[in-house]
Amino acid sequence: MASNYTSYKNSVGINLSNFKRDINAAGIYDRRDLEWFDKFNRFGYIDPYNTVNHAKEYLFFTKPDLHLFKNSSSSSLNTELENIPFFMEMKKNYKPVLEQLQESCSSSNGPFIKILSNSVKNTLDMPTLTAKTIETSATIYGTKQNYRSMSTGDEDHEFSLEFEDTKYLDLYMFFKCWDEYSGLKALGLVTPPDDNYIINKILHDQIAIYKFIVGEDGQNIIYYSKGFGCCPTGVPREAFSDMDKNGGLIYSVPWRAFVIEDMNPLILKDFNKLVSGYMSSTSDMPLYDRTNHLPNSKWATIPYIYESRSGDLDPTYRRYNYKLRWR
Fold first, then answer.
1. Per-domain residue ranges for the chain?
2. CA of 163: how far to CAs of 2, 132, 250, in Å?
3. What value, to the nearest 5°, has the Cα angle with vertex 154 and ends 149 and 160?
4. pLDDT at residue 146 above 80?
């Protein structure tokens, strides 16, 4: 019996078996002893391994392909717009804004609208999924049975996003330009930049919005979703009714999405396919500057999704983790 007791002592003479029993009594367990799926915990426990301690949301807005320039290599306005004073002013003073609105423009610099990702101030609200029920006919005693049917809440989602603008009103002119273009398109005065949009029935003025929530390490993806067929449904002109005298210019912009989809791995594949043509660098940007012992504050060029094995840190489930990385 004495030899068995000694075999459980560590180098400083602590009986590890008794020590483990004592800390378990205080609700502290090794991650390998948390048996969520197999057993019951009667007295509560502390779980620092799987609790969400801090989370950050990233939103990525794909670019529409409004027909603002003549062609992909031209810096001249589309002939349908070149004599309209508003678009002439946009080209003169807000050319970078125009380039954010035409994905096929050679100088658009990537698939995402970076000014929206950099200026958004709130989170993208997600709709609740609510199941429909189908009711059977009543018996002679009035008894009826309900069966669960498909869920609703994915389609026709309306939400608002807040953006902080600059003193040059870059964001306001961005949404104003999109609105002016939509008005001309509704009147049949402007055409898509390519006939394929008409032949294949592709909406060139709607976008996708990717939503990623990462954990405290800034990389591991906790939740992801994608909004299809998104477009702003208003221009925040009311912000100029009474501007904040303390400074700052924040707009609340209404949006509509045709459908919202979440936790489908095809979203991640679609995201990586979208960015694959813009990943010129082969090395990732580190999150931490080890030389200066500071967070790495360099501006990133492009994000992508990396799939990694969980390894020994998560031995029970989640064999693979998805990470949001930057180059």
1. 1-51, 52-326
2. 70, 36, 5
3. 150
4. yes
**Per-residue 3-state assignment (H helix, E strand, C coil) for the chain:** CHHHHHHCECCCCCEHHHHHHHHHHCCECCHHHCCCCCCCCCCCCECCCCCCCCCEEEEEEECCECCCECCCCCCCECCCCCCCHHHHHHHHHCHHHHHHCECCCCCCCCCECHHHHHHECCCCCCCCCEEEEEECCCCCCCCCCEEEEEEECCEEEEEEEEEECCCCCHHHHHHHHHHHHHHHHHCCCCCCCCHHHHHCCCCCCCEEEEEEEECCCCCEEEEEEEEEEEEECCCCHHHHCCCCCCCCCEEEEEEEEEEEEECCHHHHHHHHHHHHHHCCCCCCCCCEECCCCEECCCCCCCEEEEEEECHHHCCCCCCEEEEEEEC
Q: Rounded to an integer, what distance in angstroms lies between the CA atom of residue 35 and that of residue 51?
A: 15
Residue 79 is encoded by which pair of tokens? 């002939």
Using CB atoms within 10 Å of the CB of residue 163, give its burial: 0 to 12 exposed, 13 to 18 middle, 19+ buried. Answer: buried
Q: What is the reported pLDDT for 165? A: 96
Asked whether the beta carbons of 325 and 221 are under 8 A apart, the reply is no
Is 48 in contact with 81 (CB distance < 8 Å)?
Answer: no
Range with lowest mean pLDDT among 25-39, 263-277, 291-305, 307-321: 307-321
242, pLDDT greater than 90: no
pLDDT in tens, 182-193: 999 999 999 999
